[in-house]
Design brief:
Family (chain B): Belongs to the binding-protein-dependent transport system permease family. CysTW subfamily.
CATH class of the largest domain in chain A: Alpha Beta
Shape of chain A: elongated
Number of helices of chain B: 11
Largest sheet of chain A: 6 strands, mixed
Main location (chain B): membrane
Strand content of chain B: under 5%
Order of helices and strands of chain A: HEEEHEEEHHHEHEHEEHHEEEEEEEEEE
CATH class of the largest domain in chain B: Mainly Alpha
Strand order of the largest sheet of chain A: 6-7-8-3-9-10
Largest interface: B-C, 92 and 100 residues
CATH superfamily of the largest domain in chain B: MetI-like
CATH topology of the largest domain in chain A: Rossmann fold
Distance between the termini of chain B: 43 Å
Keywords (chain B): Cell membrane, Membrane, Transmembrane, Transmembrane helix, Transport
Structural class of chain A: alpha+beta
Helix content of chain A: 25-40%
Number of helices of chain A: 9
Number of strands of chain A: 20
GO cellular component, one term (chain B): plasma membrane
Subcellular location (chain B): Cell membrane
Mean pLDDT of chain A: 89
Number of domains of chain A: 2
Chains: A alpha+beta (388), B mainly alpha (281), C mainly alpha (348)
CATH architecture of the largest domain in chain A: 3-Layer(aba) Sandwich
Radius of gyration of chain A: 25 Å
Oligomer: heterotrimer
CATH superfamily of the largest domain in chain A: P-loop containing nucleotide triphosphate hydrolases
Mean pLDDT of chain B: 88
Number of domains of chain B: 2
Low-confidence stretches of chain A: 19-23
């Protein structure tokens, strides 16, 4: 994450806690207020409220059909909310048609005009505003320069590679200097290698121009790498809005924990509920789970404990404290992933737990191998209790 | 089964012979010197000469061409609007009737279309005095009505294939819907427009039945002349005319196919080049 | 495109919050030229309670055209079919009359329809049309299927040439193509001459002015309409399906019957309908190739109208023909709708 994003994050965090010096407060650029969109009986977006701040790269993350694209299209003006309001830069935009909104969109299919050259594509929006042609020319050259496509200005879209088209689509949408750029799966059509490189490029452009980006994506890694903040959507609702770090370490629901990275989820009964710790009894584990923070559950109720695979320790020796936060099992399978390996440990209860270990040494003989009897354990601070 | 069996090959050979032998015979016998169309009397182009002396045929050809050009243009405009409405406007009141009225002429027997529209003209003339008698205007209106269905289908399917987000992108960049249509949609679907125009032109040029119903005494079209002389028997002059018509159509189609093939190849080459450049990056 | 958008006048007309809209529009369109002055006509057409807003206007133009020139004519045909023939201009009795300027007299004559049922000629013509069209459709399918199959199985470059060859006759005059067969089929025509020249027959076979000639004419004229939809479904057919069937022990012929044939059903139905429906009402082919004795309904109607000048009977024949064709047409459209739906679901 860049310095800029980190600053903004701090500012957002402070602003939301309510105590901060006014000059530092980030300005909200988009306010979505109780927006619902129905298609017949189907509720695509369900009572969503959201604030996006100026200059941030905000991601809407979710599986297909979760409503993220509909929400983005409502920001662009291609869909009208069934109820609720959308404010862009303080103005009510709920019923303003797309051609009068100060936002631009980069389409998943890029939607380049096939009968126009790259230059004409980039100039299109400027001409609609009646910008003088000399100025249009200057701006187009400037924009193409940003993405290093100046040499290809006279080509038609079908004469470009996928990556080049993606960049044309990006600068075409940026040419009008919109207040907000909406990106619908901007990297979805690229192959994996190109995608990784383009992610960084996109972030660099966003920061150097200072434009607010709202990105729709289904790829949690992409959201994690690029975003200042992420909103996770499911079935038309926003489940959690947070920085990638907070989203990963402090998911608030089972769905978020499972969607954003991989996780071991344990269902159990809350047997001890104190202000500074809780204890969960999980039948799949031989020992109770001790969590070193309080939760808002009630004693005797069902609780879900989430433990990330890399936060589980694996050893052949018994851990120091075997009264809690550990269990034993047999290594069922090892998935080698290069930088790390994932061990699938089958506990005595039959439950399989994923454990990730760094492969820090090249020649090292793996200490633990198939069918070994092992202990798994974790720190009390590494467990997150989530709601269903 | 990727190889074609002898059975398939012979079926295809028979089928194509069936399609083309009659036309070829027709063309060969147009150069027959004998007045008896089925007896070969030596090579001659005299029937072509006589054809170009025949004022009735030439006049009818001119009438037909004018009607075909007018009705093709009008039906392309109306058909494009219909295609746009069906492909892009979603639901509106009366849509079912609208799409029904568009597709019905496709399957309607020509005799019915011709009779009904003639009766409309007669009723209109009684009621408001228009159209005064029947002639090229009435034929054109009738042709537009039955050819616009074809244009609509062509445009609608082209718009269906087109990525709608291209139009959305234009709107997003500040173009109003009407401008989007003229700056973006129309240029992209231009080839479909052209094929729609050509199809209506051909259908209009070719139509006998509807024109017979809606024509007046002063507006005899080419198919009507051909029909009345063919009814009297085979004449070498009609053979000559047929040869010209078939050759003209074949020529246009083959040229169009070659141009399209070439454009397609060009496109493929450009894509291949762009891909190769990407590899080098 | 969202359906709320307004193609002509833009979304400004549908915006319930014009104030907010204006400020933004001013901000983003600062460089835009001032709006053109609006004429009075413009105001009448586009503003006020009876305004034709852009979207409505776009729909209205073709809609009105079709209502006037397609739907109204059928109402008139229906009306005239209930009139009675009389000598005059127009040659039928009025249906609705003012008698003494006081009351309306409506005369419904069913004579046109009575004819149709009483005179066996009409009934025979209807049945004859259906029989001939059905037979010709089957013949067309028998010839068209292997051709379409063969084209779909060829290499892409030959495929394009062959398709072009199928489509090309469609672009040449229909009348000319029917006419070409007269010279071939008549008594002293090319086919009889050739057969006699080869010594196969001694005297000419009567071919022109028979039902055989009509079959030839229909198959010849409508073959492209059969081949194209068949080709489209056969071309989409995944070749590996057949390979899978054969791999699982199916013999080629059986694989064809169990896999290819059922999967090409949509093409078969479409092709048959495209041949059958227009064939029923065909006029040119029975008139030129079938001779005087053939009875097909299109020809009967033509004669009724042009020779007998009996407009009411011609209209009644037309209405009856329409009723006859409504079932297959509606059935066909239903079928296609279902197929499209399936295709759309499949592509999701």
């Amino acid at each position: 994450m860049s310095q800029f994003a980190r600053n903004l994050q701090d500012q957002v965090a402070r602003a939301e806690k309510g105590g901060s010096i006014p000059t530092d407060t980030p300005r909200s650029i988009i306010q979505i207020q109780n927006v619902t969109r129905k298609f017949g009986d189907f509720v695509a977006v369900n009572d969503v409220s959201l604030t996006i701040y100026e200059g941030e790269l905000f991601s809407l993350l979710g599986g297909s059909g979760c409503g993220k694209t509909t929400l983005l299209r409502m920001l662009a003006g291609f869909e009208t909310p069934s109820s609720g309001r959308i404010l862009i830069d303080g103005q009510d935009m709920t019923h303003i048609p797309p051609f009068e909104r100060p936002v631009n969109m980069m389409f998943q299919s890029y939607a380049l005009f096939p009968h126009m050259t790259v230059e004409q594509n980039v100039a299109f929006g400027l001409k609609q505003d009646g910008m003088p042609s000399a100025e249009v020319k200057k701006r187009v050259a400037e924009m193409l320069d940003i993405v290093e496509l100046s040499a290809l200005g006279k080509r038609k879209p079908h004469q470009l590679s996928g990556g080049q088209r993606q960049r044309v689509a990006l600068v075409r949408a940026l040419a009008k200097r919109p207040k907000v750029l909406l990106l619908d799966e901007p990297l979805g059509a690229l192959d994996k290698k190109l995608r990784e490189r383009t992610q960084l490029e996109l972030v660099n452009i966003q920061e150097s121009l200072g434009v607010t980006f709202v990105v729709v994506t289904h790829d949690q890694e992409e959201a994690m790498t690029m975003s200042c903040r992420v909103a996770i959507m499911n079935q038309g609702r926003i489940l959690q809005v947070d920085t990638p770090h907070a989203m990963y370490e402090y998911p608030n629901t089972r769905f978020v924990a499972e969607f954003f990275g991989s996780v071991n989820m344990f269902e159990g009964i809350l047997v001890e509920d104190e202000a500074d710790h809780v204890v969960i009894d999980c039948p799949e584990l031989s020992r109770p789970i001790y969590v070193s923070h309080g939760v808002s559950g009630r004693e005797g109720g069902t609780a879900y404990a989430a433990i990330r695979p890399e936060k589980v320790a694996l050893s052949k020796e018994e851990p120091a404290d075997t009264s809690r936060n550990c269990s034993t099992g047999v290594v069922q399978d090892i998935v080698y992933l290069g930088g790390e390996s994932t061990y699938l440990v089958k506990l005595d209860s039959g439950r399989v737990v994923r454990v990730s270990l760094q492969n820090a040494y090249r020649a090292a003989e793996p200490e633990i191998t198939w069918d070994d009897r092992v202990w798994i354990s974790w720190q009390p601070s590494n467990v997150v209790v989530v709601s269903s | 089964m990727s190889k074609r069996s002898p059975f398939l090959i012979s079926c295809m050979a028979f089928g194509f012979a069936f399609l083309y032998v009659p036309l070829l015979l027709l063309m060969i016998y147009s150069f027959n010197d004998s007045k008896l169309v089925t007896v070969w009397g030596g090579f001659s182009t005299r029937w072509y000469g006589e054809l170009f002396q025949d004022d009735q045929i030439l006049g009818a050809a001119r009438t037909s061409l004018v009607i075909a050009a007018m009705s093709a243009t009008l039906s392309t405009i109306l058909g494009t609007i219909c295609g746009l409405v069906l492909a892009r406007f979603g639901r509106f009141r009366g849509r079912t009737l609208f799409s029904g009225m568009i597709t019905a002429p496709l399957v309607m027997p020509e005799v019915i279309t011709g009779l009904s529209i003639l009766l409309l003209f007669v009723a209109l003339e009684q009621l408001i005095g228009w159209p005064e008698g029947r002639g090229m205007t009435t034929i054109t209106i009738a042709h537009v009505t039955f050819t616009m269905a074809y244009v609509t289908i062509i445009i609608q399917s082209r718009l269906g294939q087109m990525d709608e987000s291209i139009e959305e992108a234009a709107m997003d960049l500040g173009a109003r819907p009407l401008k989007v249509f003229f700056l973006i949609t129309l240029p992209i679907i231009a080839p479909a427009l052209l094929s729609g125009w050509l199809l209506s032109f051909t259908l209009s040029l070719d139509d006998l039945v509807i024109a017979s119903f809606t024509a007046g005494p002063s507006s005899t079209t080419l198919p009507m002349v051909v029909f009345s002389s063919v009814r009297l028997g085979v004449t070498p002059k009609i053979n000559a005319l047929a040869t010209l018509l078939v050759s003209a159509a074949a020529f246009c189609i083959v040229i169009a196919a070659i141009i399209m093939r070439r454009a397609e190849r060009e496109r493929e080459r450009a894509i291949a080049k762009a891909m190769a450049e990407q590899e080098q990056m | 495109m969202s359906t709320e958008l307004d193609p002509l006048t833009g979304g400004a007309t549908v915006s319930p919050a014009p104030g907010a809209a204006a400020t933004v529009a001013e901000q983003t369109k600062a460089d835009a030229p001032p709006p053109r002055p609006k004429h009075r006509l413009y105001r009448v057409l586009f503003r006020g309670p009876l305004a034709l807003r852009g979207r409505g206007l776009v729909i209205a133009i073709p809609y009105l055209w079709l209502l006037l020139f397609f739907l109204t004519p059928f109402a008139i045909v229906l009306k005239i079919s209930f009139a009675e023939f009389m000598v005059g201009v127009p040659p039928y009795t009025p249906l609705v009359e003012w008698v003494d300027d006081t009351y309306l007299k409506i005369t419904l004559a069913f004579s046109g329809y009575k004819y149709l049922l009483e005179d066996s000629m009409y009934v025979n013509a209807y049945l004859g049309s259906l029989r001939i069209a059905a037979t010709a459709t089957v013949l067309c399918l028998l010839l068209g299927y292997p051709m379409a199959y063969g084209i779909a199985r060829s290499s892409p470059s030959t495929r394009n040439v062959l398709l072009l060859l199928v489509v090309l006759p469609f672009w040449t005059s229909f009348l000319i193509r029917v006419y070409a067969w007269i010279g071939i089929l008549k008594n002293n025509g090319l086919l009889n001459n050739a057969l006699m020249g080869l010594g196969i027959i001694n005297e000419p076979i009567e071919m022109l002015n028979t039902e055989f000639a009509i079959y030839i004419g229909i198959v010849y004229s409508y073959l492209p309409f059969m081949i194209l939809p068949l080709y489209t479904t056969l071309e989409k057919l995944d070749g590996s399906l057949l390979e899978a069937a054969m791999d699982l022990g199916c013999r080629p012929w059986k694989a064809f019957l169990k896999v290819t044939l059922p999967l090409s059903m949509p093409g078969i139905v479409a092709g048959c309908m495209l041949v059958f429906i227009p064939s029923v009402g065909e006029f040119v082919i029975p008139d030129l190739l079938g001779g005087a004795s053939t009875l097909m309904i299109g020809k009967v109607m033509w004669n009724e109208f042009f020779q007998n000048r009996d407009w009411p009977t011609a209209s009644a024949v037309a209405i009856a023909m329409l009723i006859l064709l409504v079932l297959p047409i509606v059935g066909f459209q239903r079928y296609q709708l279902v197929q499209e739906e399936k295709a759309r679901e499949g592509s999701k």
